[in-house]
Amino acid sequence: MPEIPDLDAFSKNLTKNLRGARLETLVAHKRAKATPSVAAIKKLLTGKKLLRVFREGKQLRFEFENKHLLGVHLMLHGEFRWEEHKKPTYVVFTFGFAKKPPLWLTDFHFKANIFLDPEPASSPDVLDKKVNFRFWKKVFGSPKAVKTLLMDQDIVRGMGNAYTDEILYEAGIAPDSIASGVPDNKIRDLMKAIPKVFNNASKEISKNEPDIIGGKYRAFMKVHNSKKDKTQTGYAIKKKSVGGRKSYYTEEQVLYK
Predict the structure, then answer these.
(1) Total domain count for the chain?
(2) How far is CA 132 from CA 34, 39, 172, 192, 255, in A?
(3) Is the domain of 146 the same as that of 58?
(4) Beta strand pairing status for 59-64 and 238-242?
(5) Is the alpha carbon torsion for 193, 197, 203, 204 positive or negative?
C-alpha cells in the first residue's frame, strides 16, 4: 500500500501536471466503487477546474474550484498511470482532463475507490503538530504492541507497514514491544525518527523517481527490504508477524515489556 512519502510524491506530481485543467470525463469500470454514484460525482465535478491534489492520512484528495473534494483510496494495489498511446490493464477509473493524456486509476483487485466530500477524520495525521509528546505518552499507556498502535488509523493516520518498520528501526524499538514498557526517552526517539524517515524517503523518491504518480520506490529502505539480508551495521534482518503483519527488524532494536 502506498504510504506517506509515496502519496506526497503522487500529489505533488499530479498537481504539477493537472492544476487548472478541467475535468471533462469520468469513466468507471462496472466493478468500480464510488460514493455516491459515479453519475452524482460527474454531475458535480464535470467542467470544473482542478486546483490541487493533496494527501490526507493514507488517502488522496482532489480539490476542485467549486470547493468539492474527491477522495481517492488506493488500497493495497491501486496505481495512477498516464500513457498517451497504450491503455493499461485493470483500469478502475479513467479521468479525462482537458488537453491532458488520460489519467487511469488501475487495480487488479478492483478495491481502489473514490468518494465525494469525505468527512473530516477524528484522528490526527501523524505529521500534525498536535501529535506531540503528550499525545504519544497517552497512546503508549496501552498494553498493546507498539507497531499495532502506530498503525491504528483510529489513533493516528498515515502510518503503514513498511515505514513503521523503518521508523521503529531508526528509534531502536522492537516492533512487538509492549507500549507501556517503552521509556520516555525512547518515545522521544520515536518522535524524532518519524519525520526523519519520511523526509529521507521523500528525498530518495524525488531523486530516483521524480515523475512518479503510482507504484512504490523503496530500494533505499534499511530493514523493510526483501532484497537485503543485513543492515549497514552488519546485523541480520529478521522477520516476524506482529498484529498479523510481516515485520522486519534486527537485534539492534530493544524489546520492551
Answers:
(1) 2
(2) 35, 42, 19, 11, 23
(3) no
(4) unpaired
(5) positive
CATH number of the domain that residue 15 is part of: 3.20.190.10
What are the tens digits of pLDDT across the range 234-254? 999 999 999 999 999 999 999
Task: Please report where in the chains the cell 494495489 appears, as a residue.
Answer: 77
- Which grid cell is 215? 507504484
pTM, to two decimals: 0.94
Question: Cα(60)–Cα(13) distance, rounded to whole angstroms?
Answer: 12
